[in-house]
Write a structure and sequence with these properties.
The complex is a heterodimer of chains A (182) and B (154).
Chain A (H helix, E strand, L loop, with lengths): L3 H23 L2 H17 L1 H4 L5 H19 L3 H4 L5 H13 L3 H7 L5 H11 L2 H11 L5 H8 L3 H27 L1
Chain B lengths: L5 H15 L9 H10 L14 H28 L1 H68 L4
Chain lengths: 182, 154
């Protein structure tokens, strides 16, 4: 039987990592907390084995990711998330691409003190399909093929979503910089 | 002169920035919620029988005894009423029915073969057309349902 005190310490050590992983994918604090609870409940049932494992962080991250993706799928958002191309979104993206600033300028802006907060905020605002694909690529370091398999979508859809997410972030961050300077 | 790809530069920069994002702070309610769920007693139907409430244990014992009693009574009644003999007769009737069905199927397949020789291609084409029309109808109905009913709500 797991020692409750040890398990509580274990949760304190990993709660921010688990919560962050869930939040990056879901962009909703309440849903991220629910998923985090489920992750720790699963960890509790395997705690005797897990606490001796050197890959416990990876296990938690993988379980969190899988639960989030299952949650997103069950929420039926998949209809919108992973299977359709919204024409309005395409127009918006095209406009973003036309207005995107010089990447070097954007890069300089990203070295401002509050750049990370702004980046995290803009990440949350991305359309779910783009955010999920981008997070799986950059935070979970999955390949395009792996992301396509995880989301059960085509490879080209993954590439387009990630490309659009990058373009959107680039444009919005550049736009924010111009607002601040003016 | 080496040409720099601005998109590749931005991808690299973005990756670095995203990796450098600090972890979010979990809400203070997370650990208490997990501990509460861990220590909450399991519902009676998910726990062992001897951990069920006394009334449910008594009811379950009563139910099992009632089922066993009913089975015993049924067995005794079969013997007394001669139902076993009637069941045997029913079995013989079933055998006759199977022989008849086999004969009927043989005749039907013979008739079908005789019909198929001159009209086979027409039947095949009509079946394929019917299946295609059914499939297209399903696709059209599904698309209409999706657009009219669901898309607006997502």
């Amino acid at each position: 039987m797991s020692d409750p005190l040890q398990f509580e310490k274990f949760m304190r050590d990993y709660q921010n990592m688990v919560y962050s992983t869930a939040y990056r994918l879901l962009a909703d604090p309440a849903e991220a907390e629910d998923i985090s609870q489920e992750v720790f409940l699963r960890a509790y049932t395997h705690f005797d084995d897990l606490r001796r494992s050197p890959t416990i962080g990876g296990w938690l991250k993988t379980v969190t990711r899988n639960l989030c993706l299952t949650f997103l799928t069950r929420r039926r958002s998949r209809w919108k998330l992973f299977s359709e191309m919204d024409s309005g979104q395409e127009e918006t993206t095209a406009r973003f691409e036309n207005q995107a600033g010089d990447p070097e300028t954007t890069s300089q802006f990203l070295h401002d003190t509050d750049r990370r907060e702004m980046l995290a905020s803009e990440l949350d605002k991305l359309p779910a399909a783009q955010r999920v694909a981008l997070v799986l690529f950059h935070f979970h370091e999955l390949s395009y093929d792996e992301i396509a398999a995880q989301l059960n979508v085509s490879l080209s859809k993954v590439k387009i979503d990630i490309h659009r997410a990058r373009q959107t972030l680039r444009r919005r961050l550049e736009g924010s910089r111009q607002v601040l300077l003016s | 002169m080496k040409h720099r790809d601005p998109l590749a530069d931005w991808e690299t920069e973005l990756h670095r920035e995203l990796e450098a994002l600090p972890e979010l702070v979990a809400p203070p309610t997370l650990i208490p919620s997990v501990l509460k769920r861990i220590h909450a007693p399991a519902p009676w139907h998910r726990s062992a029988w001897w951990q069920w409430p006394m009334a449910l244990r008594a009811a379950s014992v009563g139910l099992v005894l009632a089922v066993l009693g009913a089975l015993g009574w049924l067995g005794g009644s079969l013997g007394e009423l001669g139902l076993a003999h009637q069941l045997a007769q029913t079995g013989a009737g079933l055998k006759d029915a199977l022989v008849f069905a086999n004969d009927l199927l043989g005749r039907l397949s013979g008739s079908a073969a005789a019909f198929w020789r001159p009209h086979g291609q027409i039947v095949l084409g009509a079946t394929a057309a019917l299946l295609l029309a059914t499939y297209l109808t399903c696709v059209a109905a599904g698309t209409a349902l999706y657009r009219l009913a669901w898309r607006r709500t997502l």
